[in-house]
Structures are given as C-alpha cells and as structure tokens.
C-alpha cells in the first residue's frame, strides 16, 4: 500500500492471484455482508474464471459487494470517504472527501494521475493500443497521483464505496478511472481522475459485473 499522508491505498488494482486467495479462504461463506448485499450469494467472478495464465492481471467480473467483501477480508476497506465510511455520491471530485479521487489527483492537483495533460501512451486506455487489460504495473508511465500508485487511469474501472442509495442490487454505485475499452471522441475525458461513470453508463448498478471493472482497497 502507498501512504498518501491521510490514508493508505493499494499500489495496484487487486489481481487475480490475490483474489484467488480470498476465494480459497472464504469458500462458500458469504456471511457478514452489508444489508444492501444480502442478494449476493457467491464471490466467484462471473466470467473468465479461473484466470489461467493471468495471475498479475486485475481481477474483473466482480460486483460491488464482492469488492467490499475482499477488502474487508484483507483487513482494509473499499475506498470511500477520507476518515471513514461511504463517500457521498455528489463528492465525486472532492479531494478532501474521496479517498480514490484524492489519491489519483494528488489531492486535487492533477487531472490525470501522471499530470495535467493527457498522454495517450501513459496509461492503458483505448489509444494505448493494448485492447485488453494488462498486468498491473505493465504500463510503465501510468504512475501517480502519488509515487508508487499504478494504473489509476485506464486498465479497468475500479469500484468505489460511493452509491446513490443503500437498498440493494440495483443501487447506482460509482466506478472510477476508466478502462482500456472506451471508444469515442472523448477518450481523454474518460480517463481523467474525475470521470463520472454514471454519465457514461458503465456498470452503474451494485450487482453489475464486467470485463472492464475491478477494484483496489484503502486503509483505514
């Protein structure tokens, strides 16, 4: 983990090998989930699993509840509000409140984790040319907003503990950072630290699973 002087955040997205250890430890036990996840009956990724030959790629096809459960098991929490708890859905780009945004933007000082100006070859977005998720840390220029943090732009979207409601599977929850997959005129905008996943319509519900969505954890 990387210490941002207010909290710690995983240096990379959670990988397939890390998630596999969680599945072995938990087995069929899905107890202890928050009430909004009462519907979640399995932590096994819904696709591309087991991820044979890709131990260091970010885990994908996991829903918001899977991410919360993994982070709790690992002694951390899904990145949310600085100081503890859920980050308000409206505080998408408030570096004094959102752990994820603060880490990506170096406290609100950067548009992208690596700086102020878009670089299509820094992180694994559409214009990077990989056309798939890469091993974590493989995009060598995708470091920041703090030294030691990798892939906060592109590769896969990352679930955040930030939802519009707290009722169940269809609540709209936020994913952060963009991915390798978006194609269109606004590629640069969709790889910013402040990109709004709801406006794009990517994996907006708590129970959504996708090849382009994973997560990382924070502490405390």
Structural write-up:
By secondary structure, the chain is low in regular secondary structure. It has one domain: paralog of FGE (formylglycine-generating enzyme) (Alpha-Beta Complex), CATH 3.90.1580.10. It is built from 4 helices and 7 strands, in the order ββααβαββαββ. It has helices at 16-26, 64-73, 99-105, 197-200, and strands spanning 2-3, 8-9, 77-78, 157-163, 173-176, 213-214, 217-219. The strands form 2 sheets. Strands 1-2-7-3 form a 4-stranded antiparallel beta sheet, with helices on both faces. Strands 5-4-6 form a 3-stranded mixed beta sheet. Strand 1 (2-3) and strand 2 form a beta hairpin. The longest helix has 11 residues, at 16-26. The termini are close together.
The total number of structural domains is: 1
Per the CATH scheme, the topology name is: paralog of FGE (formylglycine-generating enzyme)
The CATH architecture can be named as Alpha-Beta Complex
Share of helix, binned? 10-25%
Q: What is the CATH superfamily classification?
A: paralog of FGE (formylglycine-generating enzyme)
Structural class: little secondary structure
Unreliable spans: none
Average predicted confidence as pLDDT: 95
**If you compute it from the alpha carbons, what radius of gyration comes out, rounded to the nearest whole angstrom?**
16 Å
Number of E-type strands: 7
Main-sheet strand order equals 1-2-7-3
The sequence of SSEs as H and E is: EEHHEHEEHEE
Largest sheet data: 4 strands, antiparallel
Q: So what's the overall shape?
A: globular
CATH class: Alpha Beta
Proportion of beta-strand residues: 5-15%
**Tally the helices: what do you get?**
4
Distance between the termini: 11 Å
